[in-house]
């Protein structure tokens, strides 16, 4: 608190020096001395895969071989913090009406693009899988194959995969409603 004689409207040089000394003395009472170490534990989360329901267009037979494109976006979340890498596997049942089926080799992945999900600072995955890749199919889904992988120290964060899947429709196919069950899974390690 300033002395009473410095509260007057006109400040003298002595009062000004007293005010500066008072502020300097008060400020030093809040100064920190030395340093300190802070630490925080960052705990790893999980490795998950989600995908939207696949979409496919209808086709009208025209006497020629045709193809259909299947859209099947896959979201990968690697919040493990391990950098261990991961891989996505795929298998399927054959496209069938119940009476007629497409070939077990009808579905092929021609390419896959990868990007960081919105609001994710991801490490884009380094993929070693070669395309085109035939998706295995049969009346009962056979063993899965690797669809995409992330090498060690890649694919961390949330990654959006967009595979391009093409289904071959031969000109001599029977008309009908064909369906297939595609199974996607994620596995730790490339």
- Structural class, judged by helices and strands? mainly beta
Model regions low in confidence, pLDDT < 50 over at least 5 residues: 6-28
Name the helix and strand elements from N-terminus to C-terminus, one letter apiece. Answer: HEEEEEEEEEEE
Number of separate strands? 11
Question: What order do the helices and strands come in, and which of them pair?
Answer:
Elements: H1 13-28, E1 47-51, E2 55-56, E3 66-71, E4 74-78, E5 86-93, E6 107-116, E7 133-134, E8 137-138, E9 145-150, E10 157-169, E11 182-188
Can you describe what's shown?
This protein is mainly β and 190 residues long. It is 8% helix and 35% strand. The protein has one domain (48-53, 62-188). Strands 1, 2, 3, 4, 6, 7 and 10 form a 7-stranded antiparallel β-sheet that branches. Strands 5, 8, 9 and 11 form a 4-stranded mixed β-sheet that branches. The longest helix has 16 residues, at 13-28.
Task: Jot down its keywords.
190 residues; seven-stranded antiparallel β-sheet
What is the structure about, briefly put?
With 190 residues, this protein is mainly beta.
């Amino acid at each position: 608190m300033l002395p009473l004689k410095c509260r007057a409207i006109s400040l003298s040089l002595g009062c000004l020096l007293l005010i500066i000394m008072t502020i300097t003395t008060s400020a030093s009472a809040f100064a920190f001395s030395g340093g300190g170490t802070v630490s925080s534990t960052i705990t790893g989360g999980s490795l998950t895969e989600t995908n939207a329901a696949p979409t496919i267009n209808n086709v009208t037979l025209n006497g020629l071989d045709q193809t259909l494109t299947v859209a099947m976006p896959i979201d990968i979340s690697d919040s493990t913090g391990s950098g261990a890498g991961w891989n996505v596997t795929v298998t399927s049942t054959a496209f069938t009406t119940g009476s007629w089926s497409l070939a077990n080799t009808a579905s092929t992945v021609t390419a896959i693009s990868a990007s960081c999900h919105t609001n994710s600072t991801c490490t884009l995955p380094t993929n070693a899988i070669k395309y085109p890749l035939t998706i295995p199919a049969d009346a009962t889904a056979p063993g899965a194959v690797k669809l995409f992988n992330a090498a060690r120290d890649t694919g961390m964060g949330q990654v959006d995969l967009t595979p391009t899947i093409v289904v071959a429709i031969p000109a001599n196919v029977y008309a009908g409603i064909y369906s297939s069950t595609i199974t996607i899974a994620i596995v730790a390690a490339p």
